[in-house]
Each structure stands twice: as C-alpha cells, then as structure tokens.
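Q: Here's a chain of 230 amino acids. Please give me its 3D structure as tokens.
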Amino acid sequence: MTRSDATTLVFCAVFVVGAASGIPAQARRQGNPEQFLPANITQVTAFGERPAWSPDGKRLAFIGKSFGDAYEIDLETKLVRHLTGHFAHAGFLRVQFLPNGDYVLIGARTFRDITRTRYEDEELWVMKADRSAPPMALDQKVHEGVAISRSRMRIAWSSSNQQYPNRFPPGESALYVADIIYENGRRSSPTNARSFEEDSPSARSKRKTFATTTITSYIPVIAKSERRLT
C-alpha cells in the first residue's frame, strides 16, 4: 500500500464514522468570509502579504503586493508605516526583521519581467530601522526567502542555477549561512559561516560540499568563510 492509498483510506474511514454518528454537515455561509471570521482571528490590514513578526512581537512587517513596497503595522495603535517610500526601487518580495530591529529586504535592482525578475534577479538587502538611508545590498542573489536567527545576526538563504548559472549546473542549488556585521564603513574580515551545496537529483548523488569563496562588503558586511568537504 502506498502512502497516498493509506491517506485516502484514513480519510474515508473518518468520513464514514462521522456520517454514521449522525453529525450534521456544516452549512455553507453566504457572504464575504472576512465578515465572519472565527473569534480567535482578527484582520489587521485590508491589504498585504507575507507578514513577519518584529523581535518584540508588537509589530508586523509585510509587503503591500508582489514587486511592491514594504510596510509595517503597530498592532496596538493599528498605525501602518510605509517603509520603502523614501527611495526609488524596482519592488520587493519580502521584508523581515533582524534581531536588532533592522530590516532584511528581498528585491531586484531593476525590473525586467515577472518571471526573470522573480527567479533570476532577487537580492538580499539590509535597511536600518530608522530608515535614514536606502537599503544596502549584500551582493547575494537569493532563491525564495531568508531564514533569520531570533538571537543573533545570522541568516540563511539559498541560491540556484537560476540566479548563478555560471556557479551551479541546472537543477543544483546551495544553502548558505552567514553573519551580518556592522563596522562603520570599514571593510571587515570574514567570520565563520558555511555554505552547503547538494548535487541535483538527476545526478543521483548525495555528496554535500562547501563552496570555496569568501565574501565581504561595506556596511553591512555579510561574511562567509567556507571549505570543501571530501
């Protein structure tokens, strides 16, 4: 029996028991579902997507729409703040908080079209919490989103052949882990971090390797020192 068969059988068994016990079917309610939310759900905005909690749990950062602007809402006052309206940009797909309250953004430098910009051009950026300047590029392209530590300035993200066709063969991707460092405009030496790469499924290989590059930048600095596993 396959897993899908087992899942189907369990579902059917539960359905039959429910029917046999005389439990009435739930009536379909007419109207807009947003007007009949469960008691434990509260609508906080009338727009937006991909929300992320602030470190203190009092705010939510979110994207207004794909390739749009980033916003933040104070959950107590319900005031919405426009985070990315003070500089020109090509639109963002993600906004998240770093543990120190600064923001990580995912967006492209230019907009070509939905497909190529979404899958080939998205990069990581960091913006100070006071929004005193536009975001600074970390010079790292990203596939999908970014994972951020709750307790330290460490992030994880993935890149693939779509972002770096000269680095990876088709179907291959890598998971990176790195620290973000601020050093007042001076170049920083790299800190320990790792990059995990795995061959494509078509290669039938489970080898994991470390890349052999070191990346530094000006504020903020994203630093990685890596080695290759045999």
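Q: Can you summarize the key feature?
A: The chain has a mean pLDDT of 78.
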